[in-house]
Write a structure and sequence with these properties.
Elements: H1 2-14, H2 30-40, H3 43-46, E1 53-61, H4 76-85, E2 87-96, H5 98-110, E3 117-121, H6 122-130, H7 138-144, H8 147-154, H9 159-163, E4 165-166, E5 169-170, E6 173-174, E7 185-189, H10 190-195, H11 204-216, E8 228-230, H12 248-253, E9 261-263, E10 269-271, H13 276-290, H14 306-309, E11 313-318, H15 327-333, E12 339-342, E13 352-355, E14 362-366, H16 373-387, H17 394-407, H18 426-438, H19 449-463, H20 469-487, E15 490-493, H21 502-524, H22 531-557
């Protein structure tokens, strides 16, 4: 599921669907006209390499299938990028699925047999820098990066590039986190809520009562006891970036932040998974599970979204983009299903609590010794411009849109690197632009391409509800997901540390396994709630205290 979720997150945030062309009115007026003029004036960023160059990359095989003679490294999008840059992208190796791909990357680093460029996580970046295995990209980035890429990095206040640097040298081209993604909402079958005459949820008690009604009162009206109150995922807590069916919101209502390093009232660094507040949240989840309010089968599902898609679940937790997936599949099977999002549960004071996301967590790096690092930057420039719908080659991009629409292939899955860039406040800005047009304060022709596309889809959905799910997805996500977040005052808690320490490198995997198993066993009743105290004791003895000291020292040095 993780691989699919990662792909969906990118697809959602970037809103570059295939149902509209690149030649929207926004491309010939207002902001977009200026952007096109700027991009055409950047020959170093977008110009073709003077001589033929090849770049060897590691490639994650997508779920979508190509047709005919097209292959993962020879297809419409790869040929288009080659045409623009004179750079041949060669797949040094391919792997399908997150786990297999991560194993390939880990082996490439361990054996010092890296492709010319690849995307790594924070811990891997640190290791590569420590072992002098990747190039200093400071000068290459300064000379060859596009204004668009620089502006996107600037939207993080310079923090994204800072996290990819050491001692003033840039060692990776980072992704940029979307601020809106850190928030988890409660998604509810509104048609069931209305049929049973129930009020929308606000508190933990409300959620429990609604879940009981969804289990016991036949909300779908089929005369069978086949519905579940709350769907869940055996991962339990996602921590930094929520995904469907995690229980992060329950913990946050108790002011608990598992898998995050925060500071307590006295300024001490604490690991959120071992606090009394986390124990209290686990007690609530265990009680709900025992009462049958949480799906009794959630641990057994291969894909946690199964009860959501098949119409059995009445509630689940997830970020704003849930209409893109899994709700699009649920609505495709039952167009009468009405899902709405709520900022629930509130804490004991009636406030909504959430955590923030890391500024960045993935980095495009270049193998030390590769002769053309500028080729990597150029490729990033070109497919970022295409993804942001700023490519001035209207005829070619129209053809790519039509190909994607007819074939069902997501073009972004075949970019050379899985590093899609967008502004940190992109979702907020598109929401504001959409509201401005709908309220008559903005002319649609002045919108940037992404906002204009969102406006087109929203209008299509309003005119013909659920007739085109490609329009329903963004319309519902922004109206019901983003809209709720924007209208809800929130207490945002920041993590003080991301990354790794020397002791974490040796002991963190075992500590994580201990944590994950304990949390799950307490919820399903295989261990008592009091076993949490023994878990905390073991966590601290098996390296947790040592790691906490290392992190506290780093935080103090910041």
């Amino acid at each position: 599921m993780k691989a699919r979720v990662a792909l969906l997150i990118m697809a959602v945030l970037l809103l570059a669907g295939a149902c509209t062309g690149n030649n929207s009115p926004a491309q010939t007026a207002g902001l977009q006209g200026e952007a096109l003029a700027d991009s055409s004036a950047e020959p170093l960023a977008y110009g073709s390499m003077p001589e033929r160059v090849s770049v060897r990359v590691g490639f994650k095989i997508p779920e979508s299938r190509l047709s005919g003679s097209d292959t993962n490294d020879n297809n419409p999008i790869s040929r288009y990028l080659d045409q623009l840059t004179n750079i041949q992208v060669v797949h040094a190796w391919e792997a399908k699925g997150d786990d297999a791909f991560e194993q390939k990357i880990s082996f490439a680093i361990a054996s010092n047999d890296m492709p010319d460029a690849m995307v790594v996580d924070r811990v891997q970046l640190r290791r590569l820098i420590d072992n002098d295995m990747i190039q200093d990209l400071t000068g290459t980035y300064a000379a060859y990066s596009s204004k668009l890429v620089r502006d996107i990095y600037a939207s993080s206040g310079g923090k994204a590039l800072e996290e990819a640097s050491r001692n003033g040298k840039l060692y990776g081209l980072p992704n940029v986190a979307i601020e809106m993604d850190a928030v988890t909402l409660l998604w509810v079958r509104q048609d069931w809520l209305d049929r049973l005459g129930l009020e929308p949820p606000k508190t933990l008690r409300d959620i429990g009562e609604i879940a009981r009604a969804f289990v016991e009162r036949d909300p779908d009206g089929d005369g069978k006891a086949n519905t579940v109150g709350i769907a869940g995922d055996k991962i339990v807590v996602f921590g930094q970036k929520p995904n469907p069916s995690g229980f992060d919101s329950i913990f946050q209502a108790f002011h608990a932040f598992p898998k995050n390093w925060t500071q307590d009232a006295d300024g001490n660094v604490v690991y959120g998974s071992i606090t009394p507040e986390s124990k209290a949240a686990l007690g609530q989840l265990a009680a709900w599970y025992k009462q049958g309010l949480i799906d009794k089968q959630f641990v057994l599902y291969k894909e946690s979204e199964e009860p959501i898609v098949n119409g059995r679940a009445g509630m689940f937790f997830g970020p704003w983009w849930m209409p893109y997936w899994p709700l699009s599949e649920a609505v495709a099977q039952d167009t009468k299903a009405e899902w709405r999002a709520y900022a629930a549960p509130m804490d004991a004071k009636g406030e909504y609590v959430t955590h923030t996301a890391p500024v960045t967590d993935r980095y495009l790096v270049v193998r030390k010794g590769y002769e053309h690092p500028e080729a990597v930057v150029k490729l990033l420039n070109v497919f970022t411009r295409l993804e942001r719908r700023l490519d001035p080659n209207i005829q070619e991009t129209q053809w790519l849109d039509e190909y994607a629409s007819q074939s069902g292939v997501q073009l972004r899955h075949y970019y050379p690197f899985d590093l899609l860039l967008d502004y940190s406040d992109a979702v907020d800005k598109r929401y504001d632009n959409l509201q401005g047009v709908l309220e008559g304060r903005l002319d649609p022709s002045t919108l940037d391409p992404d906002s204009y596309q969102l406006y087109e889809m929203t209008e299509a959905e309003h005119q013909n509800p659920k007739k085109n799910l490609d329009a329903w997805k963004p319309a519902a996500a922004y109206e019901y997901g983003v809209g709720v977040i924007r209208k809800t005052p929130m207490i945002k808690v920041n993590s003080v540390f991301y990354g790794s320490t020397p002791t974490m490198g040796a002991k963190w995997a075992a500590l994580e396994q201990l944590e994950n198993e304990t949390y799950l066993k307490i919820i399903v009743g295989d261990q008592s709630l009091d076993s949490f105290d023994e878990f905390v004791k073991q966590w601290r003895m098996q390296g947790g205290d040592e790691i906490t000291k290392e992190i506290a020292k780093r935080v103090a040095e910041q």
